[in-house]
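Morning F.,

Quick status update on the modeling queue. The single chain you submitted on Monday has been processed. Sequence for confirmation:
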Amino acid sequence: MAITIKKVLCPTGSIENSDATYSTTVASGGSLTVPDSDINVNSVNEGSVVSVKDIDINVVDSSGSVTLDSVTIVGNTVTIDVPDSSPAPIGATLMKTGQTTSYATGDDGDIQAGRDVDFFTLNYTNPFGNTNRFTDELGGATYTNNIVIDWSTYDNVAGTVLGYYRIKQGANVWSDAVANALALSVSTFTSGWRLTNFKELLNLYKIGDRAMNYSPINQGAGNNRYWTSTTLTGYTNQPYFGSNAWQGGAVVAANAYEWLGCRNFTVTGTTLT
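Structure tokens below.
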């Protein structure tokens, strides 16, 4: 018995994307190559990508990947919100002194000139997302390692901040204080410590309270004298000192005073090294 094979024709097929903005037909037995998709960034065509594939978008700056504020997708528009960039600093106004009582119109307590909201409060957020001027190295106020980070000194371009070891060290003659500060080792921060200079010590002094006896420095109410690494010009045997109930000046290096150590920390995100 003879078998007759007839050609069977299928109907023309159609293809479209999920919102029907692209559609076409495919003839029976034919094939179709889906066109690539154009990528427009702020209305400027930046090229094309293969259709029907996942697209990876990497947002970076000179330091690496950027932590985005948000990503939203509406239709075929992807909006990527990146954090505001900080202009390179060219200087900063001086800190407020902490004096809030006024005795005459136009005095410091009246005008309260200077940077930040007050002695303890920044007018911006530190890398840990709070406005505390003083924190420990983890961004809190536990001070387990007795390290105090002063975010008023934060250099967001260099990525550095000044920190203090808040435990006063025993009385030494000046040369020993300098050497002992260099040998200071605190927790995992085993190097990089040094004796505070005059301005670094003064920056801890709250004029309004006439003392450094506040948390987190917490040096007590006594009139302790502290060496600085700064010496009187032309008199190498006369370093400057400052006291807890502030008085300061230059005295002979053979005196035995207490001292505080400080260190520059590198800031990477919320990690200090």
